[in-house]
Known about the structure:
This protein is 59% helix and 4% strand. The protein has 21 helices and 5 strands. The chain has helices spanning 12-18, 31-36, 58-66, 77-85, 95-102, 129-141, 147-158, 167-176, 181-194, 198-213, 230-238, 250-262, 267-286, 295-306, 311-320, 325-345, 350-360, 363-372, 374-382, 387-401, 417-442, and strands at residues 2-5, 22-24, 42-45, 70-74, 91-93. Strands 2-1-3-4-5 form a 5-stranded parallel beta sheet, sandwiched between helices. Helix 8 runs antiparallel to helix 9 (181-194), helix 14 crosses helix 16 and helix 20 packs across helix 21 (417-442).
Amino acid sequence: MNIVFVGPTIGVAQARDILDAWYLPPVSQGDVYRAAQHRPTAIGIVDGYFDQVPSVWHKEILWAMAQGIKVFGSASMGALRAAELARFGMIGIGRVFEAFATGELEDDDEVAVRHGSIDSGYRQMSEAMVNIRETLANAAAAGVLSSSEVTPLIKAIKSIPYQERNTHAIVAMAGALGVDTSRLQILGAWLAGNRVDRKRADAVEMLGAMAQSSSDDSRRAVNFSFEITTLWDHLTRTAGHLAMSADNGSAAKNVVDELLIDCDDWTDLALIATARRLALVEHRMQNAADWDRGLDEAIVRFRHAKGLRDPEQLQEWLRLNELSEWDFLLLMEREAAVKNMVDRLRGEMDRELIDHLRVTGQFPALAARASAKLQLIEHLQAAPPSREDYDMAYDWFTNTKSTPDLDDGHRLGFADVAPFKRAVLLEFLSHRESVGRDEQNKQ
């Protein structure tokens, strides 16, 4: 899967004719990090925000590349970032990229344009300076202007704000520089039919390059070590998620609303969601290039637990849960990440569990149960249990809990088989003693 950020440079319909990809609005800060969490083969950056919205951060591009994701840049913001990060492995495409990479161009305003909102299809309302330079060079080659006229004209256009650069400004500036009226009319007519869209041409070239590389889904190695900083930690904890579905997550949001309206207290739900979120963030920080660890195991475990043994059963489950097969893989990847973090922290969460039991009022009853079993521990020391005792306890436990596949208690949170067996035996003995007392009371 490819993800590409486009806007005024090239429309989504035209881009999709060249490359099958998820097309997203112009990139801004945090977008590449959010996109990389969807594990695309490649990310392409064409357009991005400059002024009123924070621009895409170099470090998030480096992080995406550290995951083995190919990152392409061209035409506009993509060309700028590619020129700056080419030595780290970002793939720059096109003449605009080359001009920035060689130092021929240096200013961001060379690619900046004024454009409309997403509702207008990012309608372009000014002309990029890189386009104007090439268009006027062609005007000189065509004899519409002389070379001596083009140089000061480019300088004059460069001096005005990028929002005001357009065909009318070019003609007006040419007139101010002494081009006579008849030639201005010729220039205006020529510009109307001979405008060079260098940015769009470069974007098309980049999309073609991405299409050619799509057959290679191998992960790219990088020549740098990604460093986690305080600012990076803040970004990862506040970035949120990038909606990739057609309804931008509205269906899922409605489900959440239904859950909240039915719950008595959302605190426990919030704790679960927060724990999962922090586990995912920590996993990604600690395992930057290790996305797939445990993925196959997570899929097998989940399908077994849900009884989704046949492909038809899985497809029905996906339909009911409004997931594509790709979404399912991402879900299982997150499940694997959470499980990996839980395994890492196993044995270090007792204090947090005790805190939770106390604030939720569950601690006293559980403490009483634990105290009642102390005498059973003394009994076990006096008469060590046999293999038959353990088997009897295990059979009773699995039948009672309706979990016949429990083999080591790992899924219940026990660190190893020994404490699990001990807990099961104590539970069984406690139950048997309770039943014995009840029978005596009946007699």
